[in-house]
């Protein structure tokens, strides 16, 4: 395969086409994660994540921030994927692990542990001994965005990383839990890019939504499950409770054939 663009140059980390060029060419998740963490394709996100890493929150002044794109976390043979929104400036952008270091992540990992998908109920840093069982965590945008709001252009630029990740997971992937409407809308075109057939009109997001995508030539049918995002706004108001999230994760585990308590 020719690795160059029509002009003859391979897109570098700061080029907008870097994800689209390199992500589909990755032979495994290790290669994908290594390339992803060097991406600088979105100038606004690069500036914000690096500013947050330099101007640290007071509680974390003694810590070295990751300050780069945050790769997915979990085994390469995962039967279930959990798709969020983007890393938090002082969460994943600090710790370098997806969903780790902020309140939303605390809520999610407690639920994963309750279902038997995580070895412990907390995720604090990359050396805390946490392992995931049958589930991989990822997001449609891998850099922390200002105000937790990526632009449509940033979402689309980052999409090839998610599409490639889903494609590499596809031999064993059976269910995807999507946290929030942004993740749902971002996931559907990524699934198309990964070779999945998504019905028209596009399925609507909602907590408890369940859509079954037909099997592909190289994979089985895929179940999409919707859940409200475990943001503090949702959890403090009771829009999303722990039992609600546990129920969705337990259903995903059952669909993925993962034994759970």
Question: Quick one: overall form?
Answer: globular
Characterize the biggest β-sheet. 5 strands, mixed
* Helix and strand pattern: HHHEHHEHEHEEHH
Which strands sit side by side, in order, in the main sheet?
2-1-3-5-4
Task: Tell me the span between the first and last alpha carbons.
Answer: 47 Å
- Give helix % range: 25-40%
pLDDT under 50 segments (min length 5)? 1-5
- Total DSSP E strands: 5
Put simply, the count of helices is: 9
Features:
261 residues, alpha/beta, five-stranded mixed β-sheet, 9 helices, 5 strands, 9% strand, globular, disordered N terminus
Task: Tell me about this structure.
By secondary structure, the chain is α/β, with parallel strands linked by helices. Helices cover 36% and strands 9% of the residues. It has nine helices and five strands; from the N terminus they run H-H-H-E-H-H-E-H-E-H-E-E-H-H. Strands 2-1-3-5-4 form a five-stranded mixed β-sheet, with helices on both faces. Helix 5 packs across helix 9 and helix 6 (152-169) packs across helix 7 (181-193). The radius of gyration is 18 Å and the shape is globular. The protein starts with 17 loop residues before the first helix and ends in a 6-residue tail after the last helix. The model is unreliable at 1-5 (pLDDT under 50).
């Amino acid at each position: 395969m020719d690795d160059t663009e029509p002009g003859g140059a391979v897109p570098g980390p700061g080029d907008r086409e870097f994800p689209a060029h390199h992500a589909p060419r990755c032979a495994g998740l290790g290669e994908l994660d290594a390339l992803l963490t060097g991406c600088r394709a979105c100038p606004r996100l690069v500036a914000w994540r690096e500013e947050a890493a330099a101007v640290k929150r007071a509680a974390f002044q003694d810590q070295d921030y990751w300050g780069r794109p945050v790769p997915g976390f979990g085994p390469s043979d995962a039967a279930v994927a959990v798709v969020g929104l983007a890393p938090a400036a002082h969460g994943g952008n600090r710790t370098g692990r997806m969903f780790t270091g902020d309140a939303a992540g605390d809520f999610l990992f407690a639920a994963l542990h309750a279902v038997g998908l995580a070895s412990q109920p907390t995720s604090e840093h990359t050396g805390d001994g946490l392992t995931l069982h049958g589930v991989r965590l990822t997001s449609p945008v891998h850099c922390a965005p200002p105000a937790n709001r990526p632009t449509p252009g940033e979402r689309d630029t980052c999409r090839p990383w998610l599409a490639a990740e889903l494609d590499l997971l596809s031999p064993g992937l059976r269910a995807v839990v999507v946290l929030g409407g942004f993740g749902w809308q971002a996931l559907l075109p990524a699934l198309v890019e990964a070779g999945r057939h998504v019905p028209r009109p596009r399925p609507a997001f909602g907590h408890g939504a369940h859509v079954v995508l037909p099997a592909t030539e190289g994979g089985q049918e895929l179940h999409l499950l919707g859940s409200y995002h475990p943001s503090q706004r949702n959890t403090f108001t009771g829009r999303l409770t722990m039992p609600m999230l546990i129920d969705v994760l337990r259903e995903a585990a059952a669909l993925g054939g993962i034994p759970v308590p």
